[in-house]
Amino acid sequence: MEEIKEKADYCLNCKVKPCSNKGCPLHNEIPDFIKEVKEENFSKAYEILCTTTVLQGICGRICPHQKQCQGSCIRGIKGNSVDIGDLEAFVFDKAMEQGNSLSKVWKQEIEKNKKNLNKKVAIIGGGPSGLTAAAFLVKQGIDVTIYEKYDYLGGLLVHGIPDFRLDKRIVKQTVDNILDLGIKVEYGKVLGKNLSLDELEQEYDAIFLAFGANCSSKMGVEGENLDGVYGGNELLEYNMHPNYEGKIVVVAGGGNVAMDCARTIKRLGAKEVKVVYRRSRKQMPAEDKEVEKAMKEGVEFLFQNNIAKIIGENKVEKLELIKTELVQKEGDTRLSPVNIDRSNYVINADYVVMALGANPEPFVKDLKLDLNKWGNIEVDENYKTSRSKIYAGGDLAGVRGTVAWAAFSGREAAKRIAKKLKEA
After folding, report:
1. Low-confidence ranges of the chain (pLDDT < 70)
2. Where are the domains of the chain?
3. Which of 129, 147, 171, 214 satisfies CB 3.0 to 4.6 Å to 410 for a cystine?
4. What is the DSSP string of 287-302?
5. Distance, C-alpha 221 to centroid of its chain
């Protein structure tokens, strides 16, 4: 407790609040909740956070804080940033310990909003975006049912983030806290198999699609269809790893999925794990602390390198890499990697993991919805798709790939849906 008090006291309670207004995708009222922590008003601190987020225990632990809230902290200009993530996680843990649930915090508002409102919404997908949308719709007095393909909720919070980075007990606490609002759930429901979008349109006043985009992107290089080439997202989701004992594994990518894959594979006994990233360490989207942990665990990093070719007869045997230089292209403020001619070299490899981003599953093309050039569902400023009753958010709609951004899209879509239904 003393350590938490020290971290809270370190906050300057800035009036401009760059941590909230600039850094946090959800615009959590960060100085306000920290002020309550300073005064040991933990219930009030939790209530403040509940106005903008329902994933306090999650975001407090796994958000890329240095690239978001803590990266905008005034304290960080001349020293260390305030440990905002630790304080947010503490507030959630304290609320759960004291039985201060969402349903208690929002009880009066839900009862007030329910009066004379007989609307219901279906949510497909129970990950960060779907769970957040469900909670904020219920807050507006709307009846909600989540349709989930697995027999659990949480999505990538369960199957996409390893246990060593996020304790699944926290995920369960978060999910239970949200479901306690009175949300119904139908498990084992898969679009195109035992769930029809057309039928849901007839039954519900609105539908929110939030089942994510978890098909790993490819590089388009020779040999990427050989045995031994895997998608990072699928490895984490289905946990169907090959035997890595004594093997050399190369992970392509620079985000947290790449770090999670590299650290998981190293823990599963790989002799060597190398991360190939075409930009510099400074440009990596993964948070510094995740990169540092991977390095401490023995993962090797090949910065400013690109995979040029995957070599092998039927399975991966070697990789041809090419070095890159960072140049500023006309009209671009960011340095871009460009392959250096005749800098190619070959390394041994047994497996290659592509962790370069993700795309929606192929069946999305059959949903009779407009898609953008990347294959994501096209939505307008209200998260509405080309079908008037259907909305979409999270990775599926091309929202930036962090939990906080997915939650933001779920919350904002819920607001737009509620407004529309109340006007109807």
Report:
1. none
2. 2-100, 106-213+360-423, 217-356
3. 129
4. -HHHHHHHHHTT-EEE
5. 27
